[in-house]
Here is the input.
Amino acid sequence: MRTTTISRLIRFNLHIYGIWPHASNVVVRLYWIIMLSTAQVFQYRYVVVNIHMDDFPEYIDAVSSAMASSLLYIKLVIFWTHERIFLDLIQMMSVDWQDYTSNPNSLRIMTNGANVARRASRWIVGFQIVSVISYTAGVIATNASPERSEPYKKDLILKMELPFNISTNFLYTTVQTVQCYHLFLVACGITTTNSLLVTLVIHICGQIDIFREKLTNIFSKYSAYSDETTLRTLILKHQRIILFAENIDTLYTFISLMMLLSDTIIICCLGFIIATSLNTPNAAAILIKCVMFYISINFETFIYCFSGEYLSAKSKMIGSAAYDSLWYNFPPKESQNILFLIMRSQKRLTITSGKIVDLSLERFTSVVKASLSYISVLLAMY
Here is the structure.
């Protein structure tokens, strides 16, 4: 029987990236700081040195891949600096499982949510791995052309301005292998934080469903009275749900802000590359490399926006469940508490982007529209 919502895959990855609390994180975090910083220096050095290069789509590709790695760096730093908040979330999840293991209906809701979170995590991580494989295969297909027989003429998986020249096949193969390893870890890190957000949202939405069920039962028409202690427990549970949602928002608000900004630019860059490559001789290789990357970036934005939309929709159901209950048939003192609960439920639980805007499906539509607009501008200038 499952006793946690976080899947073993996500928990294992959280240990790898130094996010999981109470682990030996100093060495792990130092490793990621050194590795990501080194890679970022070489990537952005390429961006600066080749700012006037003739092949604009290739330059745009370098910008998009560099920004994707920067996004992981930002996510890790935010998680490391908000370790206490993440620990509070884990402890609250553990308490929820301990409280409801004796209740069959509540346990069923939490188990179903854990199963959905586990499957969603596998799909998110698996889709990103397919995207990495496709991107790598596209680079390999591009290098297969006869005019790129020499090592220094071949493209690297990640565009970098290295401090040495790639003059031999052995050196080129070594650099490609290291970059493939780096790209795989970057992709897994990005999807781990995304899967964690989905898991946290699924857990709190399960708690909302349990809360609604208990709220309905306490004022059931089959009950002669409502227990004041049980009502007080429900109010405390509602406060715990609000605190859990606020902690999620605190943990992810600046991550989502940087994600929306960077993903809008990356979607624009990849869309421009795809549009300009359709009439080129190596169009197939470019499409293999960029299409899955383009879809995965859109999918990441959709995950965040859908999570915010789903949490907001679930939070609205609390007030509806309280209003639809038979609270008016009970003493004024108890029904007054329910009225306060209804008033508090009118303020939606949501995930914000930098405490500025709420994440919703409407926000996802805005990101896609903005990206398409920027693509049109680039195509007109190209």
About this structure: The chain has a mean pLDDT of 85. The first strand starts at residue 352 and ends at 353. The first helix runs from residue 8 to 16.
